[in-house]
Amino acid sequence: MSDGYWETVIGLEVHVQLATDSKIFSGSATAFGASPNSQANAVDLAMPGMLPVLNEKAVRYAVMFGLAIEAEIGRRSVFDRKNYFYPDLPKGYQISQFDHPIVGRGQVQIQLADGSSREIGVTRAHLEEDAGKSLHEDFHGMSGIDLNRAGTPLLEIVSEPELRSAEEAVAYLKTIHSIITYLGISDGNMAEGSMRCDVNISLRPRGEEAFGTRAEIKNVNSFRFVEKAIQVETERQMDILEDGGSVVQETRLYDADRNETRSMRSKEVANDYRYFPEPDLLPVEIDEGYIETLRESLPELPAAKRQRFESEYALGSYDASVLSAERALADYFEAVAACGDAKSAANWVQVELLGALNKSELSMSDCPVPAAELATLIERINDSSISGKIAKQVFDILWSEGGSVDAIIEAKGFKQVSDTGALEAMVAEVIDANPDQVQQYLAADEGKRKKLLGFFVGQIMKASRGQANPKLVNEILAANLDSAS
Amino acid sequence: MTATTLTALSEQLERGELSSVEATRDYLGRIEAHNAALNAIITVTAEQALADAAAADARRAAGEAGPLTGIPLLHKDIFCTNGVRTSCGSRMLDNFLPPYDATVVARLKAAGAVMLGKTNLDEFAMGSSNETSYYGPARNPWDLRRVPGGSSGGSAAAVAAGFAPAATGTDTGGSIRQPAAFCGITGLKPTYGRVSRLGMVAFASSLDQGGPMAATAEDCAMLLQVMAGFDPADSTSAEYEVDDYSGGLAADLSGLKIGLPGEYFGEGLDAGIETALRAALAEYKALGAELVEISLPRTHLAVPAYYVIAPAEASTNLSRFDGVRYGYRCDAPEDLLDLYTRTREEGFGDEVKRRILVGTYALSAGYYDAYYRKAQQIRRLIQQDFLDAFDSVDVIMGPITPHPAWVLGEKTDDPVAMYLEDIYTLGVNLAGLPGMSIPAGFADGLPVGLQLIGPHFSEARLLNIAHRFQLATDWHTRRPTL
Predict the structure, then answer these.
(1) Residues 95-124, chain B, touching A (beta carbon < 8 A)
(2) SS3 state of residue B143
(3) Phi/psi of residue B439, each to 5°?
(4) What residues pair up with A284 in beta bridges, in sequence order?
């Protein structure tokens, strides 16, 4: 048996925190990082007699997601109580949706590194409230409860078990991430827990239809950890199966420090959540008009944008896919491409800008260089005001000090020398100072001359501190050297 | 002398014959004298009541009085009252001071009513006799050996004993109507959704409804006018216009079609009660109404359906009482499980535990379809029975209970016998309909209630039908001697 014998079957449950200002069933704020329990009111604390009131914005966001993945929208979705006791679950039940979710069957297209794409089914997506947080440190043997997060709206997106590798799982997650951030329904901030993922994973002999026993890895919250968790869990299950053992159905935890998964509970307790329809809330009725209005208001989605980038800007599929992955990046690229040179815009954004952002660990929203300035920078290259090399210096100044491209060129005296008189003088000087090289040039054949010409260009660029217009320098040099013969 | 009805008291205050402070003192005096025997009130808020009464008198002097300004009232101790203990008759909430008022409390306060205190009830409104209260049972003022009914037994006993002209109650399966009947007062359970449930501690969310309890239909109309209305903070409250409840009270009853369900007058109904009811129905005939025999064929299913649905909802509504954030917490818990187990074991009484167990069982995997789902199906059939009946009649009348008030302890060892006493009242809650109990005579010296059931949102019509009866009879004026 080998890797080729087993097929990995993966299904993901993604919890997306919706970017509403207030909670799903109360008026408390949802901002991240507030001091403990400062964003929990009587409803969130489950005080006696308090009742939930559904946040319409959460419904709207869920429907927008449903439309984006071409899913059936539940015309009459029902909230249910999921009952269990835990100190950070104040009511003793979570309001969720069980058999009538707001978003039904849909699908997303994922892009793989080899350029291929696959369609992955989304079983359903439903609305629910988040629980609070239990804090077990700093309380001298007791536990602290922070209910700021309790009642935060979540959209739980459940995929079909159609993913077959860590790469596909990550591609699926990135696609979901890009859809929710495009729609603006979530900030998608994984470090702050705005997008969390449970991974269901099992192995089966390739060609077999029946699924193997699965393990669920809870709460993995970065793309990289999802990838690693799947890899190590696949290996773990493969080892068990190849030794003739059987996988236990259980909940596991991914430990990033040790790069391993381990069982969360020593023995699996079968939870009976006693789901039943939440009597404090009416079913959510959604009509055609509501759906149509939202459908019309949907922004261009990542897949459509990628295709448009390919056709409108003649970008390759890789460039188009990188530049369309994030809405802020795509918007930035389009603003830079307005300079009329999409190819240079794509290069500058991907190489210089993304490079600088990565190096400083900044996101697009923190980008210090306005798109209009980068567009001007490309224009100044193209109109020969500066060379590409100088442009990089201008970019560095823009990045670290701000300002405008033209002002920087002016202040630093970067403007390219395109005055033929001045260039003629420089060329004459260099030819006079390097008679040996001139002789070599004249003696050389066509192929070698090109290489030798580079030497003279370099000398002139050095003498002009990089500001000589290289195109003109080349022309004048060639003419003068040729006439020197 | 303070008047015995809310309407008459309102007129006295209006005419300046009496101040709110005087009326309040008068009621507080009677509470002081007789509550020890009746145990109808858990918490008396005398000081605040007198201050509020003085403020009401000042508003009246300034010409800013409405019909309820300065009227003393009692609230069932399941309505949250800002800064005043709201116990729900349970050890679990013996120490609970809500930082907010229930919508019902806030509306009555805004209308100028003065709260005298909080009335006794079955623990979390689970009971038909008031015997499950952590504070001991309230007593029936007509016979102190007997129960006042439940769960709003404290409110009914207090109004009958003249502790206040009116009180609020809640009705999940008869909890306003049955104690009103047992104590000889008038009580109205409105259409589900007519009165906000916000701040009314939940027993069974899809059945609970707050309503007025007073001497007369006229008084109930005045209170309901203020209590009723849409509340955006209660998603199940109805965005449906509130009628003028007092305006139509006097309308003529000629041609009124009264449906009498055969199932409500059959075997099991006490002979004394039936005699009193037949006499009341004859009175309606004399008022121009027509009596029509009808059938509510699913009546016998109301008890089993109710005792699945109500405990199921209660079992999860009461999960929040876990000792973590408020209310009772057991002493020195060893760990989380111990905290949960002992807090709930020590904080809840037997009947509450029984219903949590029944409800948890009914919702469990493998039993859900057989119990909860089936009960919901039956609930729809019961509602359909009523709707079909209202195709041919305007109102349905019948008994509230098979028997008059029983002796304390008589049924406590047999919960099912006690549950079966609710047979005539549960259907109304399952169907979400409005229902009333009005005094209609006596059986063996104990008050008998006549039940009026109307279509959804027919409160104004029910009050009119009750009021015309009360103009023609004097049962509602009878008071026990204390």
Answers:
(1) 96, 98-100, 102
(2) strand
(3) -60, 130
(4) A77
- Taking an 8 Å cut-off on Cβ atoms, the answer to whether B322 and A92 are in contact is yes
Edge-to-edge strand ranges of the sheet holding A276-277: A93-96, A80-83, A276-277
Give the pLDDT confidence score for residue A448 in this predicted structure.
Answer: 81
* B205 contacts on A by Cβ (under 8 Å): 279-280
CA distances from A100 to A126, A273, B369 (A): 9, 16, 17
Taking only the tens place, the pLDDT of each residue in B77-105 is 999 999 999 999 999 999 999 999 999 99
Higher pLDDT, B421 or B355: B355
The mean-pLDDT minimum among A6-20, A36-50, A316-330 falls in: A316-330
Whole-number percent of chain B with pLDDT over 70: 100
Catalytic residue of the set B152, B155, B175, B437: B175
pLDDT tens per residue, range A295-331 = 999 999 998 999 999 999 999 888 998 899 888 999 9
Task: Please count the other Cβ atoms lying within 10 Å of the Cβ belonging to residue B48.
Answer: 16
Distance between CA atoms of B216 and B463, rounded to whole angstroms? 9
Domains of chain B (ranges, CATH numbers): 6-255 (3.90.1300.10)
Q: Active-site residue B257, yes or no?
A: no
Q: For residues A54 and A58, what is the distance between their CA atoms, to the nearest angstrom? A: 8
Mean pLDDT of A274-280: 97
- Helices assigned H by DSSP within A144-266: 166-183, 223-242
Closest residue to B319, CB basis, from A47, A83, A280: A83
% of chain B beyond a pLDDT of 90: 96
Distance between start and end Cα atoms, chain B: 17
C-alpha to C-alpha distance for A272 and A85, rounded to whole angstroms:
11
Peptide bond into B364 cis (omega under 30): no
Residues of A in contact with B312 (CB under 8 A): 276
Chain B neighbors of A45, CB-CB under 8 A: 325-326
- Least CB–CB distance from A280: residue in B100, B232, B235: B235
**Rounded distance, CA A344 to CA A349, Å?**
8
pLDDT digits 0-9 by tens, B42-82: 999 999 999 999 999 999 999 999 999 999 999 999 999 99
Q: For residue B138, what are the CA distances in angstroms to A249, B35, B39, B144, B185?
A: 55, 9, 5, 9, 16
**B370 at interface of A, judged by CB pairs closer than 8 A:** no
**What pLDDT, in 10s, does the model give residues A67-94?**
999 999 999 999 999 999 999 999 999 9
Which of the residues B316, B344, B368 would you substitute to probe the A interface, choosing the one with the greatest number of A C-beta atoms within 10 Å? Answer: B316
Section A420-446 average pLDDT? 84
B chain contacts of residue A54, beta-carbon cutoff 8 Å: 235
The structural domains of chain A, ordered by start, are 11-205+271-291 (no CATH), 300-412 (no CATH), 420-484 (1.10.10.410)
Report the alpha-carbon distance of residue B128 to residue B351 in Å, rounded.
Answer: 11
Q: What is the mean pLDDT of residues B219-237?
A: 98
- Considering only the beta carbons, identify the residue of A87, A276, A282 that sits closest to B372: A276
A48·B364 Cβ contact <8 A: no
